[in-house]
Amino acid sequence: MKRRTRLALALGGAAVVLGMQWLIHQPDGQHGPAGRGGAQAQAAHYRLGRIDFARCELKQPQSGQTTAAWCAPFVRPENPADAAGRRIHMRLALIRSTATHPAPDLVVFLAGGPGQSAVDSWPLIAPALRPVLEHRDVVLLDQRGTGRSHPLACPKAEHAAKLAREQRAGRARPPETAAQREARQAAETRACLAEIEQTADPRYFTTTDAVDDLIALRHALGDPRFDLVGVSYGTRVAQEYAMRDPKGVRSIVLDSVVPDTLILGEDIARNLQNALTADFGLCKAEPACMKAFGDPGADLATLRARIARHPPVVTYRDPTTNVERTRTLDERVLAGVVRIFAYSPLTAALLPLSLHQALAGHYAPLMAQSQLILGQVGRQIDVGMQATVLCTEDAPLLKPNPADEGTLLGARFIRDLQRQCAGWPRGRMPADFHRPLRSGIPTLILEGQYDPITPPRYGREVLAHLGDARLLIARGQGHSVIGAGCMPRLVGRFIARLRPKTLNASCLDALRPTPPFVNFNGAPP
């Protein structure tokens, strides 16, 4: 069973790894010398520094498609202060450049979440980094606690919780009270933690521990300089790495950046509300959408009020399995559905139509689409690693903001997270962890205009402390824009030339918002 978090999904990174779950399979191979071009096609091993890579494939489940790669074991102590203690076997993969003689620096992709696997995420982000591969190798290390790097998963506890939720949804009974929900969440968290602690100590799965792993990896690879490419939560890892090992960093790309100063969750309600206002504004500016739906924001407010009084029990078909499901659509579920719709331009364009349908009593399309999106995102998240990161680095510093009470999410995200973190072990966090990165390392910052979780103002905040950096805002886009339009080409040029301020980004002017759908066939011509 794939991991699905019951803790709050802090960033998601949905636009990067949406729906793609990939596995590594290592075929048998003959030993031989490593090389490039034709030699690369025949060689079975490739050595960098002290690490010996062997041929492997990144394979998509239920598909014959594969990506050729090179894999190697990488072992680290679970507790960095106890070299003789339990060891973590980490999954490491290398995507080799198409160049005969690639550049000596290595591109390191840092996945989002927190809780996503870099290796599992690779096949979908690969097109965005194709220009980079023309001259450089790409390194993929599953962050400790994710993917196949000693994942902090609790499949038994998650399965039991899922069954209990389905049983509750299928019964004719009143919705849970707040006290009942809090007690259930606490019990689920305890069960998950107990399962994880059978094989791991969650305290040692923080961002700081992950950065130590990357520093150790760079030394093991022969001390090349890294070109860090972070997406969403991966931008926090990139900034922390640049603070701890600045001489080991050649360049940085920050896609949908999380400022080091940010406490994850503190702006979540405000950011979503701003994004929804902008998204709904697109509908009101489009005559066909305005004629069909009027004000989507008003529809959402009316729907919220109706659901608060009488939460409907909705029966719908799971779009991935066609299995019939039943779920109560309460205010929390609605808020989660709307939030996840806002992540990408395509699903945001569906939101006015979906809300209007729900207001007419047709809840199934909204629930089915949310099941598809949340299922895809959830399968990419390792619950325990995410919990350790959030409960160590953010939850203790969060304070509910009374001004959030009038928003769709309200302050419940913060309250829920803090309750769930009350019994979760905390790891280590340096005293300067939340200080801004001040650096002259060439840096390219990418933001989506309508990002509901890491808006463009975050990019401006990070940019203010960097000496050789540039911020690019992708018009009409949401969360994670490294693959939007000509952005892959720009990222490739930046990493090749390291001149962010003179990078010609005029090709981004062609980007536009996705027009709002007036029916399920799409936008008007």
- The rounded distance between the terminal residues' Cα atoms is 43 Å
Low-pLDDT sequence parts: 1-9, 12-39
Q: What is the count of DSSP helices, taking H or I runs of 4+ residues?
A: 17
Structural class: alpha/beta
What's the topology here?
Blueprint: H1 14-17, E1 23-25, H2 38-42, E2 45-48, E3 51-59, E4 66-77, E5 87-95, E6 106-110, H3 118-133, E7 138-141, H4 155-169, H5 178-196, H6 207-220, E8 226-231, H7 233-244, E9 249-255, H8 268-285, H9 287-293, H10 296-309, E10 313-317, E11 324-328, H11 331-341, H12 345-359, H13 364-378, H14 383-393, H15 412-421, E12 443-448, H16 456-463, E13 469-474, H17 487-497
Parallel strand pairs: 6-7, 6-8, 8-9, 9-12, 12-13
Antiparallel strand pairs: 1-3, 2-3, 3-4, 4-5, 5-7, 10-11
Brief synopsis:
It is built from 17 helices and 13 strands.
Explain this structure:
The chain is an alpha/beta fold and 525 residues long. Among the domains are: 30-152 and 203-262 and 436-506, 3-Layer(aba) Sandwich (Rossmann fold); 268-378, no CATH class. The protein is 39% helix and 15% strand. The strands form two sheets. Strands 1, 2, 3, 4, 5, 6, 7, 8, 9, 12 and 13 form an eleven-stranded mixed beta sheet that branches.
What descriptors fit this protein?
disordered N terminus, Rossmann fold, alpha/beta, 39% helix, two-stranded antiparallel ribbon, 525 residues, globular
